[in-house]
Write a structure and sequence with these properties.
The complex is a heterodimer. By secondary structure, chain A is mostly beta strands. In chain A, 0% of the residues lie in helices and 50% in strands. Chain A has strands spanning 4-7, 10-13, 19-25, 33-38, 45-49, 53-54, 62-67, 70-75, 85-90, 97-98, 102-106. In chain B, 0% of the residues lie in helices and 54% in strands. The chains are: A mainly beta, B mainly beta. The A-B interface holds A 32, 34, 36, 38, 43-46, 49-50, 53, 55-56, 87, 89, 91, 94-101 and B 35, 44-47, 59, 61-63, 95, 97, 102-105, 107-110.
């Protein structure tokens, strides 16, 4: 199975900040990498697919980059609604696997 | 509009089975694969498997092989996920999600399954 490791596990930031979350795959995943946002008690929401493609309807403040095994999610100009947990996911091969999540909290 | 509506919360005893439904509407049911994912309390997301509603083919995570069965009913646009031999560790919220090419674009609201004696 491909292991997905996110860092940091938690992150405190202020409204207006720019933050970056990193995701590393245990082997190359051909850019088959997605990012999800999850708020408490809600289903996850797709943000990014194919490492850097923005899901329809998602604001451009979210951006993804990376290739091979190392990927990043960047969120610019944080707003209160952005404080949530973020997960990366590889869909290069089965079983699909997720990172352990990064909890983004208000400082 | 596209919707995935899941069945309600369940409480089961260890060793029992649970069958959760995910009813699709607002699109052509047989045109999109459905994934199942679960999330234990306070934990991350865990992929369980995928079903092709068109032919009914499935692929399951090895962890659940032998315990999980995913089926579909095209007459009602519903997919089902049955998990057997339940243990306390199966207590989780179970989600279905639609796969559109590379994107998991619509999710069900989640179904809480509690396994307790």
């Amino acid at each position: 199975d491909i292991q997905m490791t996110q860092s940091p596990s938690s992150l405190s930031a202020s409204v207006g900040d720019r933050v970056t979350i990193t995701c590393r795959a245990s082997q190359g995943i051909n850019n088959y990498l997605a990012w999800f946002q999850q708020k408490p008690g809600k289903a996850p929401k797709s943000l990014i697919y194919a490492a850097s493609s923005l899901q329809s309807g998602v604001p451009s403040k979210f951006s993804g980059s990376g290739s091979g095994t190392d990927f990043t999610l960047t969120i610019s100009s944080l707003q209160p609604e952005d404080f949530a947990t973020y997960y990366c996911q590889q869909y290069n091969s089965y079983p699909i696997t997720f990172g352990q999540g990064t909890r983004l909290e208000i400082k | 509009q596209v919707q995935l509506v899941q069945s309600g919360a369940e409480v089961k005893k260890p060793g029992a089975s649970v069958k959760i439904s995910c009813k699709a509407s607002g699109y052509t049911f047989t045109s999109y694969y459905i994934h199942w994912v679960r999330q234990a309390p306070g934990q991350g997301l865990e992929w369980m498997g995928i079903i092709n509603p068109s032919g009914g083919s499935t692929s399951y995570a090895q962890k659940f092989q032998g315990r999980v069965t995913m089926t579909r009913d095209t007459s009602t646009s519903t997919v089902y996920m049955e998990l057997s031999s339940l243990k306390s560790e199966d207590t989780a919220v179970y989600y279905c999600a639609r796969k559109s090419i590379a994107v998991w674009d619509y999710w069900g609201q989640g179904t809480l399954v509690t396994v307790s004696s």
